[in-house]
Design a protein that fits this description.
The protein is globular and about 60 Å long. The protein starts with 5 loop residues before the first strand and ends with a helix. The mean pLDDT is 92. The chain has a six-stranded mixed beta sheet, with no helix packed on it. Strands 3-9-8-5 form a four-stranded antiparallel beta sheet, with no helix packed on it. The protein has a four-stranded parallel beta sheet with strand order 12-11-10-14, with helices on both faces. It is of the alpha/beta class. Among the domains are: 91-224, 3-Layer(aba) Sandwich (Rossmann fold); 311-381, no CATH class. It has helices at 98-106, 134-141, 143-157, 191-199, 212-224, 248-255, 311-315, 322-330, 334-339, 350-354, 361-381, and strands spanning 6-7, 17-18, 24-28, 33-34, 41-42, 47-50, 59-60, 65-70, 74-78, 120-124, 161-167, 178-182, 185-186, 207-211, 230-235, 238-243, 264-267, 274-275, 289-293. Strand 17 (264-267) and strand 18 (274-275) form a beta hairpin. Keywords: Iron, Iron-sulfur, Metal-binding. This is Electron transporter RnfC.
Length: 382
């Protein structure tokens, strides 16, 4: 069994930097409900798409301009709209209830974790993956937004207890939440494991969890009344405020980064992120990092046969069988994959990272989940 320690510690040396606006935004709209069309003229903050999930947040234009292209994957906005933005909404004046939730959803907030009554609200303040330091940065530089986010979350959920989970030894506090230290090693930063560390239970009833990045967005919405149009990303050791839809090509050119032939560019983190298919691909709301992996550093993932080494099972913190799940997904036996623990997997990516055969285990798992979800939606419509 491999013994590798995936540290989440990061030495912050700078404040958050603003990424310059690109000439075009390439906003991913796959599987979203479009609310605009080619030729439309947008103001910064206009709604461009809604999420099909009941609690999913809407998507907004990060800049004003004209929609010059729309296809199944992307919506392209030519950024020529100036500094004009949509009018702010006073969410703090609204009472607790459906109106407030719908307003937050329309401003881009995922309200699924903020519905109903919670006994415990867990705030995940650990960096999500090695090499990504946005959570640590926000705990240092985003205190005002985080306090506003906690206040609004408490208003919606009325929890008996709010807990901020931070790396053990860190002296961090947010008004309205108690602080608990957790070992700063991956995968202990994942929501399911943070909740277990805080409550001592796995998937306890009456518990809601929200990460610091989402809490910061909630606080910014509460303070400004404006929609979410940016994401925070760790790139080459620094944290940037990046307009959603910014093409990767723009980021590389602006920062002087070079990707050679055969190199892999990953949006997100090194374990759970997704490799891009084009430098024109735009960043998403949940992309918290950008990484360039040399073709010489890590062997390429391939559709090789499983060698039954068992390393993925030994590494799995969810105690499922990734090798069997991936085989079922590979041959479209999705219901059988469920019997091996598909729905208990929280997609940490350790199985794929440690696979000696370099099988795309995480991709197979996500594929199986997506196919079962699509089947469930089709069955519901019949």
């Amino acid at each position: 069994m491999l013994k590798i320690h995936y540290s989440l510690d990061f030495e912050l040396t700078n404040s958050i930097r603003d990424m310059a606006l690109p000439e075009e935004l390439h906003i991913q709209v796959r599987n979203l409900i479009l609310k605009t069309k080619k030729g439309s003229v947008l103001t910064k903050g206009d709604v461009i798409a809604e999420h099909p999930a009941p609690g999913g947040g809407a998507f907004h234009a990060a800049a004003g301009g004209k929609v010059t292209g729309v296809n199944y994957h992307n919506l392209v906005v030519n950024c020529t709209g100036g500094d004009e933005t949509v009018s702010p909404v006073d969410v703090n004046s609204m009472g607790k209830g459906t109106e407030l939730l719908r307003t937050l959803q329309s401003l881009g907030v995922d309200v699924a974790p903020l519905t109903g009554k919670a006994e415990v609200l867990v705030i995940n303040g650990l960096n999500p993956e090695p090499g990504v330091s946005v959570a640590q940065q926000l705990l240092r530089d985003g205190r005002e937004e985080l306090r506003a986010g906690v206040a609004l979350a408490r208003k919606l959920l009325s929890p008996n207890r709010a807990v901020l989970a931070v790396p053990k030894g860190e002296q961090v506090a947010i008004h309205g939440a108690e602080t608990v230290g957790i070992r700063a090693k991956y995968p202990y930063s994942l929501d399911a494991l943070v909740v277990r560390a805080v409550t001592g239970k796995e998937f306890p009833e009456g518990t809601r969890v929200i990460n610091v990045m989402d809490l910061y967005d909630l606080g910014r919405v509460a303070l400004t009344g404006l929609p979410i149009t940016e994401t925070l990303m760790t790139i080459a050791g620094h944290n940037y405020r990046v307009p959603i839809g910014t093409p990767v090509r723009h980021i590389l050119d602006l920062l002087g980064l070079v990707a050679g032939p055969g190199d892999t560019i990953v949006l997100g983190g090194p374990f759970r992120g997704e490799a891009i298919y084009s430098l024109d691909e735009g960043v998403k709301k949940t992309d918290y990092g950008l990484f360039i992996t040399s073709s010489d550093a890590i062997p390429a993932v391939q559709d090789a046969a499983c060698i039954n080494c068992g390393e993925c099972v030994l590494q799995c913190p969810a105690r499922v069988q990734p090798h069997l799940i991936s085989r079922c997904a590979e041959y479209e036996r999705f219901e059988e994959a469920e019997r091996y623990g598909l729905n208990s997997c929280f997609e940490c990516g350790l199985c794929a990272f440690n696979c000696f055969a370099r099988r795309p285990l995480l991709q197979y798992i996500r594929f199986a989940k997506a196919q079962l979800k699509a089947k469930g939606q089709q069955d519901a419509q019949v």
